[in-house]
Every structure is written in C-alpha cells, then in structure tokens.
Specification:
Blueprint: H1 4-49, E1 54-56, E2 61-63, H2 69-99
Antiparallel strand pairs: 1-2
Helix pairs in contact: 1-2
Length: about 110
C-alpha cells in the first residue's frame, strides 16, 4: 500500500496545477474583456479616419449611414488593430522588464 505522504504530495501538486490553470484562464478572460472594451475607441478612431459620420445609439458607436462593403472592411480592420497595437506595446514593455534582469549563466 502506498504511503499517505505520497498521496498528499500528489494531491498538493494536482491542486497547485489546477489553480495555476484557472489563474491563466482568468487572466485570458480579463484580457479579452479589456480588448472588447478597447474596440469602442477603435471604432471611433476608425470612423474618424475614414470620415464616416457616427452617432451613439447605445453602448457602441454606429455610423449614421451604413458604409459599403469595402469601407466596412477598412473600418473593421482599423478598429481591431487598435487593441492589437495596445496589446503589443504592453507585452513589449512587460517582456522587456523581464529581459533586463540578472543574466543567466550559460554553463
């Protein structure tokens, strides 16, 4: 029969791994929510760059006159690039800080 300490260590490892997986999922959900909120300023920037008149009719700005398919594609591309650029800049600064730590030995 296995020792109780072995099972206890196994259970602690399982709980620790499961909690880390849940923390990663929570972080991803928070970042997706932030990116979803960044789509609103992205749409405003896209409407202003493409000179489309827009209005507030709820939570998301809408164009006053629906644009054609190519203009809609341009607006969507600009609106989705806004959160992507912000995510890239944030990741750049987060990863840069980690690389400036103490150098590891190559032994």
């Amino acid at each position: 029969m296995a020792e109780p300490r072995h099972w206890l260590q196994w259970l602690r490892g399982l709980i620790k791994g499961g909690s880390m997986a849940l923390l990663v999922l929570l972080a991803v959900l928070v970042l997706l929510a932030v990116d979803g909120l960044l789509l609103i300023p992205g749409l405003i920037i896209a409407y202003d760059l493409t000179a489309i008149a827009w209005q507030w009719q709820g939570f998301i700005p809408d164009p006053q006159v629906p644009p054609g398919p190519w203009m809609s594609m341009a607006v969507g591309l600009i609106a989705t690039l806004t959160p992507a650029i912000i995510d890239g800049v944030v990741l750049h600064f987060l990863l840069r800080d980690k690389e400036q730590g103490t150098p590891k030995s190559f032994s």
